[in-house]
Write a structure and sequence with these properties.
This protein is of the alpha+beta class. It has a domain at 30-99. Helices cover 30% and strands 34% of the residues. It has helices spanning 16-23, 26-29, 81-99; strands spanning 2-4, 10-12, 30-36, 39-45, 61-67, 71-78. The strands form 2 sheets. The chain has a 4-stranded antiparallel beta sheet. A two-stranded antiparallel sheet has the order 1-2. 17% of the residues are buried.
Length: 104
């Protein structure tokens, strides 16, 4: 279980209430959201380690691409906030044409 400190950096926690408070607050976990007429790209802090191999650093951020009736169109995960922020911009570039061009 992970939460964000006052600087937006992850730290592990054993406090279930602290974890659940952040987990239930999507706005506090959002890194970036870019909306288009046909969908959106969203990058969030996950609160849980998605590194299923158990080797290497925790994977704590995720960018997802959502498009209209198609649902989830793409997903990438990251180990750091900086990687997640850069990855968000990369996904916006990759998917903008398919989602309607210019962000709204």
């Amino acid at each position: 279980m992970y939460v964000l400190d006052e600087n937006g950096e992850p730290r592990s926690t054993v406090d279930v209430e602290e974890y659940l408070a952040l987990r239930m607050n999507i706005e506090a976990r959002q890194v970036k959201v870019t909306k288009f007429s046909g969908g959106m790209v969203s990058t969030v802090f996950l609160c849980d380690d998605h590194n299923w191999s158990g080797q290497g650093p925790p994977v704590l951020w995720e960018t997802m691409v959502f498009g209209g009736d198609s649902g989830t169109l793409g997903c990438r995960r990251y180990c750091t906030r900086a990687e997640a922020s850069a990855g968000h911009e990369e996904m916006v570039g990759l998917w903008s044409a398919a989602l309607g061009g210019v962000p709204v």
